[in-house]
Amino acid sequence: MKPFKPLLLCVALALACGTAAHAATPAGQIHPSQWPQPTWPLATDPAIERRIDALMATMSVEEKVGQIVQGDIGSITPEEVKKYRLGSVLAGGGSDPGGRYNARPAEWLALADAYWEASMDTSGGGHAIPIIWGIDAMHGQSNVVGATLFPHNIGLGATRNPELLREIARITAAETRTTGMEWTFAPTVAVPQDDRWGRAYEGYSEDPALVASYAGVFVEGLQGKAGAADFLDDHHVMTTVKHFLGDGGTTNGKDQGDTTVSEAQLRDIHAAGYVPAIAAGAQSVMASFNSFHGEKMHGHKPLMTDVLKGRMNFGGFVVGDWNGHGQVKGCTNTDCAQTYIAGMDMAMAPDTWKGLYESTVKHVKDGTLPMARLDDAVRRILLAKMRMGLFEKPKPSARALGGRFELLGSPEHRAVARQAVRESLVLLKNQDGLLPLSPKQRVLVAGDGADNMTKQTGGWTLTWQGDGTKREDFPNADTLWDGLKSQVQSAGGKAELAVDGAYTRKPDVAIVVFGEDPYAEFQGDLPDLMFKGGRSGDLELIRKLKADGIPVVAVFISGRPLWLNREINAADAFVAAWLPGSEGAGVADVLLRGANGRPQHDFSGKLSFSWPRRADQYANNVGQPGYDPQFAFGYGLTYADKGNLPPLSEEPGIDPTKSRTSTWFDRGVAATGLTLRLTGADGEAMDIVHPSATTPDGSLAMTAINTDVQEGGRQFTFSGKGLVELRSNAPLDLDRETNGDVFVISTLRVDALPAGAPVSYLATSGKTTRGEVSIAQALASAKVGEWTRVGVPLRCLRIAGVDMKSVEIPMALQAGQGVRLSLAKVAIGTDYDQKVTCGG
Ligand code: BGC
Ligand code: BGC
User: Fold this and answer.
1) Mean pLDDT, consecutive 10-residue segments, the chain of 840 residues?
2) Could you tell me which residue ranges the ExoP galactose-binding-like domain spans (predicted)?
3) Nearest CA, atom 6, ligand 2
4) Does a cis peptide bond (omega within 30 degrees of 0) precede residue 325?
C-alpha cells in the first residue's frame, strides 16, 4: 500500500488544510478556518500587560514552571507549595482536608488560607503570586457538607430554563467562595451521544443547540458578565468549560475513549457549547481524556492551539485533566513536554506534580520546551489571576464570602434548587390521570430510592463516586420521602415508608422510588441500556403492589435514560427524576395536590435525551438518521395531557445475561464472564459450579455461608497452600480504572488467621505475568468474625508487573495452612474499609 499523501487530499476535497503540519490520519485532520469564530469579550488591558511583563522579567524558569503545574491537595502540602512556588492546587473528587470526605467547611477554608499563605510567603525566595484552587463544584459546591446540591446537568437539561441555570451558577459560585476556592471545574458542555457513557448525566443534552443555550449563561452566572463591575469579583468564581473536545462522542460511549466522528461532527456537535462560553469570557477550558482519531487531546496541537486559541479566540488558559498528559504517546505522568508544546497551559498532575515539575524545568533549560511557549502559558495564567484581582486580595477567609457558611444550603439557595427539581421532572406516563395525588389519602412510599440521599445526589457528591455517604452528611437536604411525608401529614393524610413495600395497612396509592446507584466517570460505563435494578427487585415490587390492587406511581432516579419498558408497563404513572440532589421535596411539590385540591405545580420538564425503545438503542439521538426512540427528545406530559400509554414492547433487543459489570463475585457466585477456580497444594485446579467443593488433595475446602442473604458468601479453609481464583473468560481491560486509582474491593471475613501467616492477592496477565500483593497486614488488623472491605489498588498490580490492559485473573487469594477466610463480594470501586499499600 502506498503511503497516504495528505496534500493531495486537501486539493481533492478542496479543503483548506490550514497551518497544521500534523501527522494525523486523514480522517483526523483539522481545518481551523472552517471552525466558528466567537469574539473574546475582554479587551487587552495595557496596564495589566505591563505588570505581567515586569513580573515575568524577573521570574526564574523554576518559578514559571511552578505556575504551569497543578498538584492535588491529597499529595501536596502548603510547605511544598512554598518551596516549589506552585501556582495552583486542586481537590479531586476523592481529596478532602484531612482525608475525610465529610470534613467541615471551616477545614476547607483553613486549608485554602494555608495554601494561599504559602504562595505569598517569599521568605525562601521567589515572588508572591497568589495561588488558585480549583474544585469540582459540579452541581453546587458538591464536595462540601451542607452545600446546596442542584440536580445534575441531565436534569437541568430537562428544565429548558437558561435563566434558572444562571441563578444556579451564581449560587454555586457564592457557596464555593465561602470555603475559599476561586475556581470551579464546571460547566461540562459535553454533548453525550451514547447513553452508555458513565458521564452522560454530566451533560445537559444530546442536542448541541440545547447545550449551547446553557453554556454561555452558566459561565456568566459563575463569573459575572464580562465587562460588568462584578465580573470575577469575590462573589464569583472562574469557570472551566470541559472537556475539550469530543468527550461525549467516543466509540461505544467508552469513557476516555476514541472519538472517530468527522471533523464537521466534532465541530457542530461537540464544540457547540464552547462558542457561547468563549463569548462569555470563560477563563479556562479543560482538555479531555479522549482522543480524536487516535490522538489524545492532551497532545492535540491543531485543536488546542490552532482551533481553540487561534481560530476561536479563547483568551483564557487550558488546564489538563487528571494525569491526562501521561496518556499522550511518548509521555509519562511525570514527563511530558509534548502536552505543553501542543498548547496545554497548566497540566493537572495531582500526585505527580513534583516529577512533572522537575522534568519540565529540564525541558525548558535544554530547549525541548521553547521559552516562548512557557511564557505564553504563564502569561495566560497570570492574566486570569490579575483579572480576578487576586494580587490585591487578602487570604481566602478574609474575602467577601470567606467563612459565610450560613450561605451553604441557605433557605434561599435551597428554594432555587427545589424549583430546579420541580422543573426537571419528566412525566412519561399518567394512566387515567392518576397524578396528581390527593395528599389526604393513605400513601405508601417504597423502593430503595425513597429515603436515600446517596442515590438522589449521585456521583461527584462529597466523594468522587458519590458512594459511602450517610444521611447525616446532608444536614441541609430532604429525601423524596421527607418531602412526601411532610406534605401528606400536614394535609391530614397518612404516609408510610416501607422500602420493600411491606405495608402495615393497605394504602390508597403507592409511590415506588428506584433507580441507579451513584457512579462517576468510567465506573458508570455500561455495556447496554438494561436497567440492572438488582437487589431491590424493583420491577417485582411494582408488580406486587399492583397485584394487591394498589395504583403505583414509579419515580426513577438515574443519570440517563435506560430501557424500562417493563417497569413503565407495570406502573400506572412514571416519572423520570434524574439525579435531583438535595431537594427531594421538589418531587412532592409536583406529585401532590395542594390543600385546596388543585395541583401545586404542573410538570414542565421535557426530555433532553431521547428515551430508548430497546436496550441496544445506545446512540439514538434527535435529528440523526434512523431516529426511532420510545419517547422522543422534547417529550414530557403535563396534567393537561392525556397520559395513557398502550403497552410497550418488552423485548429488550439484547441478551441481558451477556453484559459485563464491575462486580466480579457476589452472593457466592462469579459474575457472567468470570469463573471461580480452586487450586490445591498439589497444583491441581478445579472450576467451581456448586456451593461447596474440596480440591482433590483435600488442601482447600469451600462451603456456602450465610451473609445478609442465605448462602450469600463462601468460606475457604486452607489446610495446605491453596489458591482461590476469579478468572476472566476474556482478558479484561482495566487500564482506565488503573489510571483512575480504582481499587479491587473484596468483602472478606477473617475466620482464622495464625500469627504471621502469609496471605496474598494475586492477579495475572498473559500466561506468565503475575503480580502479587500481600494483604496479610490488612487482614491481621481486621476483627475476626467481622466483615470488612479490603481495597487493593489496581495500581499496585500494575507496579507488580501485570499488564492492566489484558488481565486474565483479576483477583486471586493465596494462603496456607490454618487460614480460614470468607468472601461475600468482589467488585471494583473506591469505597473500602481497609486499604492495602503496594508494599504489603
Ligand atoms: C475528571 C474531571 C475533573 C478532574 C478533577 C477528572 O478525572 O475527568 O472532570 O474535573 O478529574 O477532579
Ligand atoms: C478523579 C478524581 C479522583 C481520583 C480518585 C480521578 O480520576 O477525576 O477527581 O479524586 O480519580 O483517585
Assistant:
1) 37 38 75 98 97 98 98 98 98 96 98 98 98 98 98 99 98 99 98 97 98 98 98 98 98 93 98 98 98 97 98 98 95 97 98 97 98 98 98 98 98 99 99 98 97 98 94 98 98 97 97 95 87 72 97 98 97 98 98 96 98 95 96 98 98 72 83 86 86 91 87 93 90 86 94 95 89 93 94 94 92 97 94 84
2) 683-828
3) 740
4) no
Query: How far apart are alpha carbons 274 and 741 in whole angstroms?
Result: 30
How far, in Å, CA of 579 to CA of 151, rounded? 6
Contact yes or no for 794/807 (Cβ under 8 A): no
Q: Is 764 exposed, middle or buried (0-12, 13-18, 19+ CB in 10 A)?
A: buried
The answer to whether residues 622 and 676 belong to one domain is no
**Cβ–ligand 2 contact at 95 (below 6 Å):** yes
Atom of ligand 2 nearest to the CA of 136: 9
Is residue 368, in this structure, part of any structural domain at all? yes
Distance of alpha carbon 691 from alpha carbon 668, whole angstroms? 7
Helix (H) or strand (E) holding 348: strand 347-348
Residues with Cβ < 8 Å from 502, sequence gap 6 or more?
none
Three-state secondary structure of 126-162: CCCCCCEEEECCCCCCCCCCCCCCCCCHHHHHHHCCH
Q: Kindly report whether the peptide bond that precedes residue 810 is cis, defined as omega within 30 degrees of 0.
A: no
Compute the distance from residue 607 Cα to the ligand 2 centre, in Å: 30
Domain count, the chain: 3
Q: What is the whole-number distance in angstroms between the Cα of residue 186 and the centre of ligand 1?
A: 10
Q: In this structure, are residues 253 and 190 in contact, taking their beta carbons and an 8 Å threshold?
A: no
Mapped onto helix, strand or coil, the DSSP state of residue 112 is helix
Same domain, 669 and 645: no
Same domain, 633 and 752: no
Mutate to test the pocket of ligand 1, among 322, 325, 327, 830 (most ligand atoms within 8 A of CB): 322
Find the 381 Cα to ligand 1 centroid distance in Å.
19
Q: Which residue has the cell 469574539?
A: 39
Q: Is the CB of 322 under 6 A from ligand 2?
A: yes
pLDDT of residue 535: 45
* Contact 94 CB / ligand 2 (< 6 Å): yes
What's the predicted TM-score (pTM) here? 0.84
Cα–Cα distance, 702 to 715 (Å, whole number): 5
564 plus 679 within the same structural domain: no
Cα-only R_g, the chain: 27
* pLDDT value of position 17: 39
Question: For residue 243, which ligand has an atom nearest its CA?
Answer: 1
Annotated active-site positions, please? Answer: 321, 521
Q: How far is the CA of 280 from the centre of ligand 2 (A)?
A: 29
- The verdict on 704 and 724 lying in the same domain is yes
Is the domain of 582 the same as that of 670? no
291 φ/ψ angles, rounded to the nearest 5 degrees: -105, 165
3-state SS, one letter per residue, for 440-469: CCEEEEECCCCCCHHHHHCCCECECCCCCC
For residues 203 and 158, give the distance between their C-alpha atoms in angstroms, rounded to a whole number: 11
- Count of CB atoms situated within 10 Å of the CB of 191: 27
Closest-CA residue, ligand 2 atom 11, reads: 740
794-798, long-range: CB < 8 A, 24+ apart: 794/734, 794/737, 794/738, 794/741, 794/742, 794/743, 794/744, 794/828, 795/738, 795/741, 795/838, 796/771, 796/836, 796/837, 796/838, 797/738, 797/763, 797/771, 797/773, 798/738, 798/771
User: 44 CA to middle of ligand 1, Å?
Assistant: 31
Minimum-distance ligand 1 atom for the alpha carbon of 464: 12
Whether residues 321 and 388 fall in one domain: yes
Domain containing residue 526: 425-658
Pocket of ligand 1 (CB under 6 A): 90, 92-93, 136, 185, 242, 321-322, 521
524 lines ligand 2 (CB under 6 A): no
